Every structure is written in structure tokens, then in C-alpha cells.
């Protein structure tokens, strides 16, 4: 038989035990929630880090592809520009410009070959000889806006960093310059490229030397050069978008405000902003 005093003691013991168990359960729940919060935070941080890595890779992919596009334009040019006939017709080397030949083989054929919006034939110091706008002769004033950038790229050419072959030696020319020659004894075509702003729009620009393909002696002094311009217009952006498998590639004059769009700023060869790709 349990006496009343002992019964009360047993009840108090059970209550204290239940209260202790409740505290244990409460502490376990708080710990579980805290762990879940830490886990969720870590997961969100990992997701943000992965997203940023993806965004960084996308930007790097686009920047690299723009350089590839410049090289592709420069690689297509020598098909028409590394040619004895082009050397003879382009002026320089003691010869006048053959404008009829140039209008056909440069203005029309080369425009189509490199998908150029503008072409400018220039002297080694950057003076305009003749220009074309989508196959037709362009006014001389159309060159003025791009002339400073062309002169900078012509200066870059003297470093012999970008050519269409492997240099075996540097041969002295009559004007004091030294031109890269390959192992077979033929002069190499030099080129340089950059992003520029032309008539308010971003464009890819290349500057390519005109050299002989069969008669090396035609190159007596620094040759004339061809400048190509291709706008980063919707058609060009669509080509790039398909090539790198990134959807809805756009050009924006200002930094995009949509948080879900990745973007980076385009800059010219002087570091000046041209706008944004997103």
C-alpha cells in the first residue's frame, strides 16, 4: 500500500522526469533547427558560388570568342590580300593605286569574304587611300572617326606579334623597317585587331598587311594595309550566340539592370568603355 506522502513524492518525481524529457526534446529540436539553418545557408552559399563560377566562365567564353572572331577575320583577309596582283594594284612600292581593280577585288570580293561593313585601304602611316561601304566606294570623311584607332593598330604591327606563319628571319626594307620572312623566303602577312566604336556603334576592327604570294621582291618597303570593320549588330551577335551556345545575347549601351542577366563591359584598345554584352 502506498501512503499519501509517498504517492505525492512519486508524482513529483514523475513530473520532474517529464519536465526533464521535455527540455531534452526542446534542446534537440533547437539543435536540429540550427543545424538545418546552417545546412541551408551552406547550400545557398554553395549555389551562389556555383552561379558566380558559371557567370565568370560565360564571360570568359564570350571574351575569348570575340578574340577568335577577330583572328578569323584576319585569317580570311590574306586569301585576297596575300597576292601579287593585290600588291601591284594596292599602291605603294612606287606604284599608283589601281582603283578599278581595287573596287572589284577589295570593295566587292573582300567585303563578301570577311562580311565587312566597312573597308579602308591605308598607307603604312595610316593615311586613307580608298574606302568601301558594303561593296561601294565610301566618302573619305567616313574614315575620320576611325583614323586614330587605325594608327594605334599600325603601331602594334611593328612588334610582329600576330602573323600568318612562323618567322624565320627579319629582312631589312628600303624604308628602314624589318619585315618578317618565313623559311621559304616569302614575306608574312602581319595583322592586328581591336574592338572600336564607329559612328556610335561597337565594331570589330582588323588591320592586315598586303603582301605578295609568289614574287617576294615586290615587297621593297612597308606595304599598304587593309582595315576591316564589322559591327556587333544583331546578326553578328546571333552568330556569336549560336557559336558559344548562350541564349539571348544582347548589346546594351549601359550596364543591364536585370538581376538574372550576366554581363560584362566591352572596351576598346585604349581601355574606354564601348557598352555591355549581356
Question: Which characteristics define this entry?
Answer:
44% helix; six-stranded antiparallel beta sheet; three-stranded antiparallel beta sheet; 278 residues
Describe the secondary structure blueprint for this structure.
Layout: H1 4-76, H2 78-81, H3 84-89, E1 90-92, E2 95-97, H4 99-114, E3 118-122, E4 128-133, E5 136-137, H5 147-157, E6 169-172, E7 178-181, E8 191-198, E9 201-209, E10 225-231, H6 234-244, E11 251-252, E12 264-267, E13 273-277
Antiparallel strand pairs: 1-2, 3-4, 3-10, 4-5, 6-7, 8-9, 9-10, 11-13, 12-13
Offer a concise description of the structure.
This protein has 278 residues and is an alpha+beta fold.
What does this structure look like?
This protein has helices at 4-76, 78-81, 84-89, 99-114, 147-157, 234-244; strands spanning 90-92, 95-97, 118-122, 128-133, 136-137, 169-172, 178-181, 191-198, 201-209, 225-231, 251-252, 264-267, 273-277. The chain is α+β, with helices and mostly antiparallel strands and 278 residues long. The strands form 4 sheets. The protein has a 6-stranded antiparallel β-sheet with strand order 5-4-3-10-9-8. Strands 11-13-12 form a 3-stranded antiparallel β-sheet, with no helix packed on it. A hairpin with a 5-residue loop joins strand 3 (118-122) and strand 4 (128-133). The longest helix is centred in the first third of the chain and has 73 residues, at 4-76. The N and C termini lie far apart (86 Å). The mean pLDDT is 82.
- Distance N terminus to C terminus? 86 Å
Number of strands: 13
Largest sheet: 6 strands, antiparallel
Helicity range of the residues?
40-55%
Question: Order of strands across the widest beta sheet?
Answer: 5-4-3-10-9-8
Amino acid at each position: 500500500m502506498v501512503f499519501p506522502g509517498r504517492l505525492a513524492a512519486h508524482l513529483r518525481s514523475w513530473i520532474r522526469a517529464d519536465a526533464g524529457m521535455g527540455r531534452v526534446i526542446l534542446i534537440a529540436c533547437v539543435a536540429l533547427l540550427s543545424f538545418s539553418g546552417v545546412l541551408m545557408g551552406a547550400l545557398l552559399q554553395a549555389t551562389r558560388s556555383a552561379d558566380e563560377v558559371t557567370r565568370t566562365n560565360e564571360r570568359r567564353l564570350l571574351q575569348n570568342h570575340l578574340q577568335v572572331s577577330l583572328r578569323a577575320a584576319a585569317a580570311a583577309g590574306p586569301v585576297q590580300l596575300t597576292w601579287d596582283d593585290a600588291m601591284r594594284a594596292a599602291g605603294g612600292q612606287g606604284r599608283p593605286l589601281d582603283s578599278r581593280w581595287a573596287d572589284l577585288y577589295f570593295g566587292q570580293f573582300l567585303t563578301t569574304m570577311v562580311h565587312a561593313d566597312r573597308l579602308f585601304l591605308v598607307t603604312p602611316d595610316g593615311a586613307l587611300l580608298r574606302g568601301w561601304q558594303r561593296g561601294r566606294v565610301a566618302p573619305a570623311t567616313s574614315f575620320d572617326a576611325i583614323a586614330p584607332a587605325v594608327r594605334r593598330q599600325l603601331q602594334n604591327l611593328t612588334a610582329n606579334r600576330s602573323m600568318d606563319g612562323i618567322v624565320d628571319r627579319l629582312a631589312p626594307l628600303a624604308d628602314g623597317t624589318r619585315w618578317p620572312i618565313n623559311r621559304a623566303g616569302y614575306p608574312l602577312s602581319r595583322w592586328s585587331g581591336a574592338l572600336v566604336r564607329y559612328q556610335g556603334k561597337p565594331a570589330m576592327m582588323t588591320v592586315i598587311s598586303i603582301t605578295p604570294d609568289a614574287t617576294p621582291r615586290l615587297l621593297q618597303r612597308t606595304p599598304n594595309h587593309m582595315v576591316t570593320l564589322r559591327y556587333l549588330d544583331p546578326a553578328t551577335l546571333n552568330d556569336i550566340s549560336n557559336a558559344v551556345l548562350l541564349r539571348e545575347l544582347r548589346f546594351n549601351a549601359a550596364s543591364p539592370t536585370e538581376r538574372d542577366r550576366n554581363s560584362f563591359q566591352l572596351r576598346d584598345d585604349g581601355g574606354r568603355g564601348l557598352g555591355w554584352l549581356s
